[in-house]
Amino acid sequence: MSETFKAFRCGVQLSTQELSYSIFRQDPEAVQVKKEAVAVRNLTRIVDATLRLANSKGFQAMSLRDLSAQTGLSMGALYAYIRSKEDLVSLIQQHGRLLVGGILRDRLAQVRDPTQRLRVAIRTHLFLSEMMQPWFYFVYMEAKNLPERERRQAVEAELSTEHLFHDIITAGQRDGGFRDIDADLLAACLKAVLQDWYLKRAKYHRRQVSVDAYAAFAEDIVLSYLAPSASRTRPENRTVADQS
């Protein structure tokens, strides 16, 4: 039985607080405040407020004064954590990618069967994006406005997910469980299907589609397409009688 979002959420600690811990512990030089509890609390306020402002009015339109008003921190207090908007977006993107990527790798580490690996990868990606939808949306929408280095890193991060799917698909093809199709193209299409969930979330909520239902749908699409040729009915092999 496939894992549900409820079970996933109970087993995975993922939030802007976790992201703030990551920022503080992995990049201590970026934060002047050295007391972890205080630093993490205020970083969480800064990250939450940044995502709210960016997703409502756009990161480029957001000012540090807007951020100060949203967080309740003075401009001087903000500068103890960030030197500029560019520093802020770089920290949020970089450490979020590390955190999400680490969880995805950990959950796949003990899964060997390609079909099950694909199921776990699809569900993990969707469930992570459900838990941190503002961050996923921010990373996608703001990539075009980043400085060249950060923009390149954002593109590479997106491609790394496609490469993960590609590797799982090709492993299944080598084992004979998946049919011989263009793995690169399917991986790219699968990534787009997963992105649609967090970029157009309201559309699915209006239709009362849960993340569990969407995950099952995405799995069915991909695994049906990958089913060996012998179990598929191809239009070009149908007789005239079949088509009538």
Structural notes for this entry:
The protein is an all-alpha fold and 244 residues long. The protein has one domain (12-230): Tetracycline Repressor, domain 2, CATH 1.10.357. Helix content is 72%, strand content 0%. The chain is built from 13 helices and no strands. Helix 2 (16-26) crosses helix 3 (36-57). The longest helix is centred in the middle third of the chain and has 28 residues, at 148-175. The chain is elongated, with a radius of gyration of 21 Å. The chain starts with a helix and ends with a helix.
Please tally the helical runs, counting DSSP H or I stretches of 4 or more residues: 13
Overall SS class: mainly alpha
The helix content is: over 70%
Tell me the CATH architecture: Orthogonal Bundle
CATH topology: Tetracycline Repressor, domain 2
Kindly state the number of beta strands: 0
Query: Mean pLDDT, rounded to whole units?
Result: 84
Q: What's the short story on this structure?
A:
The protein is built from 13 helices and no strands.
Topology record:
Elements: H1 5-11, H2 16-26, H3 36-57, H4 64-71, H5 75-78, H6 85-108, H7 114-131, H8 133-142, H9 148-175, H10 183-199, H11 201-206, H12 211-226, H13 240-243
